[in-house]
Amino acid sequence: MKMPFDNLQAVIRCPVCDKKYLPTKILVLDEDEGRTTIHLTCESCGAASMAFISLGQFGAVSLGLLTDLEQNEAMTVFQRETISTDQVIEVHQFLKHYTGGVEGLLRD
Ligand SMILES: [Zn+2]
């Protein structure tokens, strides 16, 4: 289900200067079933933020945070391959049995 984007625009404001965002400064980074991630750039003060919006039983819930990522940088981050559970377990197992120092991990 897609988010009612027009409705969201009316409620999203810049966390720094409290101005409403212009539609042209809003970039959708990721859209999923009932969940949308957007990057916002404030026309007024230039502050960039990201907002995670999800649709739940009681309506839309949003979490916003300031970021120093530009829109194109944020897009690059979101297009990367996600880390799988297997990869996390693999790293955990490796570190569990690893006896070397930190320098050894940084070497290729
Ligand atoms: Zn602002």
Give an overview of the whole structure:
There is one protein chain. This protein is an alpha+beta fold. Helix content is 31%, strand content 30%. The chain contains four helices and four strands. Strands 1-2-3-4 form a four-stranded antiparallel sheet, with helices on one face. β2 (35-41) and β3 (48-56) form a beta hairpin. The mean pLDDT is 85. The chain binds zinc ion. Residues 14, 16-17, 19, 42, 44-45, 47 line the site of zinc ion (ZN).
End-to-end separation in angstroms reads: 44 Å
Task: Give me the number of helical elements.
Answer: 4
Strand content: 25-35%
Question: Level of helix content?
Answer: 25-40%
Which regions are unreliable across 5 or more consecutive residues at pLDDT < 50? none
Q: Mind summarizing the main beta sheet?
A: 4 strands, antiparallel
Strand segment tally:
4
Small-molecule binders: zinc ion
What is the domain tally?
Answer: 1
Structural class: alpha+beta
Dominant shape: elongated
Q: How do the strands line up in the largest sheet?
A: 1-2-3-4
- Give the H and E element order: HEEEEHHH
Computed over alpha carbons, the radius of gyration is 19 Å
Annotate the secondary structure layout:
Elements: H1 5-11, E1 26-32, E2 35-41, E3 48-56, E4 59-67, H2 71-79, H3 85-97, H4 102-106
Antiparallel strand pairs: 1-2, 2-3, 3-4
The chain binds zinc ion.
Zinc ion binds next to loops.
